[in-house]
Design brief:
about 270 residues; alpha/beta; Rossmann fold; eight-stranded mixed sheet; 9 helices; globular; binds S-adenosylmethionine; Class I SAM-dependent methyltransferase
Length: about 270
């Protein structure tokens, strides 16, 4: 906890992102990824294999855009920089570890953008009792040969929803409905892109009792939104996101994952 607190204090990050909890989330992801590296390794390898295959199958070699690049845990950056002249990494904020990691790779551009286009307007609109229309802001994606939505779909609305929750006179059902609209807007915009589009996302969080094997919790991470059509049958796998002892003493949590190239990609 002390290390996380120190990082939160020392890392230079726009105040609005700190206040919204974005830096907190990334620091927590960094700590969790380190602590659970063995449990998460199969998931990371699956993502990296998928992205490597998509990069190799993409005819154009100019530009790849990674939406939700995070800590590059799931991203085979070396393969991407070898394959494409430019690789644009898009996230709300790039941690110092990411900035250091990309230094040795040519052609990498870091872009800090809110993919929903809503975060900076949430507090103001929620205070008035409404919510902004979700957008999909995809920097440089229209010209890209390959765009990958890299396991960010279910996270897009999280921090905006918290801001809305604390700041406004909004009922939870309205916020959940809005979260579904954010997810739908992201998927619709992905489908409209002219290049190849790969989608990696989690769709459900499932908690299983370690002794009885009974499912104790099930949470729909995409709020009932259907995934778009894939070019071929997508891959499905489980991400062992929290072994027992991490979030609950006797319940282990996994996320059900889907990864595939969208049908509408060129
Ligand atoms: C599960 S992590 C993905 C991890 C990442 N693909 C990796 O390889 O490390 C989800 C990522 O989505 C990013 N994210 C969440 N909401 C976002 C938004 N509105 N705009 C841009 N990025 C967002 C988070 O900052 C986080 O890095």
């Amino acid at each position: 906890m002390l290390i996380e607190w120190l990082k939160h204090t020392l890392i230079r990050c726009p105040a609005a992102l700190k206040d919204a909890g974005v830096l907190y989330d990334l620091i927590a992801l960094e700590s969790r990824a380190h602590r659970l590296r063995r449990a998460w390794q199969p998931h990371h390898e699956t993502c990296r294999h998928l992205i490597t295959a998509w990069a190799e199958q993409t005819p154009g070699r100019d530009c790849a855009v990674i939406l939700g690049s995070g800590l590059l845990l799931e991203i085979p950056l070396e393969v991407l920089t070898r394959t494409f002249r430019r690789v644009v990494l898009v996230d709300l904020f790039h941690m110092p570890s990411v900035r250091r990691a990309v230094r040795s790779f040519p052609g990498v551009e870091l872009c800090e953008t809110d993919l929903t286009g809503c975060l900076d307007r949430m507090a103001e609109t929620a205070a008035r009792g409404s919510l902004p229309d979700p957008q999909a802001v995809f920097p440089q994606a229209v010209e890209a040969d390959l765009v990958i939505s890299a396991n960010c779909l279910s996270q897009l609305s999280l921090r905006p929803a918290v801001v809305a929750w604390h700041g406004g006179a909004l009922i939870p059902d309205r916020i959940r409905q809005w979260e579904a609209q954010v997810i739908a807007a992201h998927l619709t915009a992905l489908q409209a892109l002219p290049g190849r589009v790969g989608l990696i996302c989690d769709t459900a969080r499932i908690g299983t009792h370690i002794r009885t094997g009974a499912v104790q919790e099930r949470y729909d991470l995409v709020h009932g939104v259907a995934l778009p059509a894939f070019a071929q049958a997508p891959l499905h796998w489980d991400w062992q996101v929290a072994p027992a002892g991490e979030d609950h003493r006797q319940i282990r949590y996994h996320h059900t994952m889907t990864g595939g190239l969208l049908a509408s990609g060129g």
